[in-house]
Design brief:
The protein is of the alpha/beta class and 485 residues long. It has helices at residues 6-15, 61-66, 90-107, 121-133, 150-155, 176-183, 199-202, 205-212, 214-217, 232-235, 304-318, 323-332, 361-381, 401-414, 427-436, 446-449, 472-479; strands spanning 4-5, 21-23, 29-30, 34-35, 46-48, 71-74, 83-86, 111-116, 138-139, 164-168, 188-191, 224-228, 244-249, 261-270, 276-283, 292-297, 342-345, 351-355, 387-391, 419-422, 441-443, 460-464. α10 links the parallel β12 (224-228) and β13 (244-249). α1 crosses α3, α4 (121-133) packs across α12 and α13 runs parallel beside α14 (401-414).
């Protein structure tokens, strides 16, 4: 945000719906940074003191002041030499501040794209941010800051020069996305897919669709709903919005698509690292001018990234970017968030794919297929090359967890993985699934997984699990300082 006075910040918080008492010199300049970790304090920053499970941010207000913070947002007055903004709930105070900042920026011309889906949100967000950056200053969250805390912190990065904001939105319950869109009012909303992530909390895919569809219900009539025409539950969300409709598709044999803007990918081809090239077609049914086409060559790994790329292209085109700019930016875009199909080539010729940030059945299947395809191409050059995987739990799947882990192991075996190392509470389910399909699988502790693999030239190994298992540590052990990229 731009630097504002203590009094101005208090007024913004109150305008956003939270009472706020300013204590200190009302003219104290605050900004541009807003943060919740006192160790990251910058000069002039606003430190938001949040209570945590193990620590209370109020205990670090004095430390933030010593490091240069000019004010702290607190739930109660703290004995520290710093201006204070006292709210009944500091997190709600942060939310109210972000809501007001976004409303003002939107009135000044900021365009916001909100993205949701069961899988691919972060990759799509990263690709779209790089496309939009070709047209103007863009803010997007790092990693998966897609909840009630990450969303307002991202909004606070917007300044008067920002032209675009890309906001990733996750949900664990019906109403979560409606809440996030009350903070960030979208210009365009993207729905990627409806899968089984968090199905243990939602109970069914229909309930997941109900929750995800809140993102298009938030649009004004002049906004854009960007929908996946290949997913029936997403396609049906047309009825839940008054906005303009844009659809994207990878279905080569799909018939006419009813939308104001239609974007498709065709002629998909992949290189040895499963990076896809394709033709991007853009048409506006009913318009006088013919459709346009452009070539795209992705730098990110996996066929599933094509859908993410086409979704991001559709959003950018809906916002008014031209097709050539979009295609060029997509071809130059790389992976921005850590531990998502992160390729590490080792000095001995082996490769480690670190996709350990998160996992659900859809993203697990996509990663397994991508690395299996890389393995096939490596064996064409070196018949002895092996394709291996260290796979851990997919969390929040409820009563169907065992079944879904069994199916992942089964899929890995069918894809030809030479060896599957399973870790976590559902490791035995995963291993049994692999064995049932004729695969080689064993259960191991995470701390032993890396040492149990002896990577040789041209081998490739996938490391993937939900965030709670922290399998990035296994990937780091496998890399062991030998990464040459």
């Amino acid at each position: 945000m731009r630097t504002r006075s203590l009094q101005q910040i208090a007024e913004l918080v109150e305008a956003g719906g939270q009472p706020c008492q300013a204590v200190g010199d009302p003219g104290t300049p605050i900004g541009p940074d807003v943060l919740i970790d006192s160790r990251e304090t910058t000069d002039g920053a606003l430190f938001v003191a949040l209570p945590g499970e193990r620590v209370d941010g109020h205990d670090y207000v004095a430390a933030a002041a010593e490091l240069g913070a000019h004010a702290a947002m607190v739930t109660h007055r703290v004995d520290a030499p710093i201006a204070q903004l006292i709210c009944p709930d500091a997190q709600q105070g942060l939310t109210a501040l972000a809501r007001s900042l976004h409303a003002r920026a939107r009135a000044d011309g900021l365009q916001t794209v909100a993205i949701t889906g069961s899988a691919g949100k972060t990759s799509t967000k990263d690709l779209l941010a790089q496309i939009l950056a070709a047209a103007g200053p863009t803010v997007s969250p790092e990693g998966s800051h897609n909840n009630e805390l990450g969303t307002p912190l991202t909004v606070c990065q917007v300044d008067p020069t920002t032209r675009y904001l890309v906001s990733e939105m996750g949900a664990r319950a019906i109403g979560d996305i409606a809440y996030l869109t009350s903070i960030v009012h979208p210009t365009a909303s993207v729905v990627l897919n409806i899968g089984t992530a968090h199905i243990g909390e939602f109970g069914s895919q229909d309930n997941i669709a109900k929750a995800k569809g809140e993102i298009v219900e938030a649009l004004d009539a002049d906004g854009w709903a960007i929908l996946n025409a290949d997913d029936p539950r997403v396609d049906a969300m047309v009825s839940r919005t008054r906005a303009h409709i844009a659809k994207f598709s990878l279905a080569a044999d799909a018939g006419p698509i009813d939308a104001e803007l239609v974007v498709r990918a065709r002629n998909l081809t992949a290189d040895d690292l499963d990076r896809y090239s394709f033709t991007l077609d853009c048409s506006r049914p009913g318009a006088r001018q013919a459709g346009e086409s452009a070539k795209v060559r992705l730098r990110v790994l996996g066929e599933h990234q094509v859908s993410d790329a086409v979704a991001s292209a559709t959003a950018a085109l809906a916002l008014g970017l031209d097709l050539e700019t979009v295609a060029t930016a997509l071809s130059e875009a790389g992976a921005r968030s850590r531990w998502r199909m992160e390729l590490h080539e080792l000095a001995n010729g082996a490769a480690v794919i670190n996709d350990a940030y998160n996992a659900n059945p859809e993203s697990m299947a996509a990663a397994l297929r991508t690395v299996a395809a890389i393995g096939v191409r490596r064996r064409q050059r070196n018949p002895g090359a092996r394709t291996m995987a260290v796979l851990g739990d997919m969390l929040e799947l409820g009563e169907v967890s065992g079944k879904l882990h069994f199916e992942v192991g089964e899929l890995a075996a069918r894809l030809g993985y030479t060896e599957i190392v399973a870790v976590g509470a559902f490791a035995e389910d995963l291993a049994q699934g692999a064995r049932s399909a004729g695969g080689s699988s064993r259960v191991a502790e995470a701390r032993d997984a890396a040492d149990s693999l002896n990577l040789q030239s041209s081998d490739v190994v996938l490391v993937k699990a939900s965030r709670g298992l922290r399998l990035e540590k296994v990937a780091e052990q496998l890399i062991g300082g030998e990464d040459i990229r």
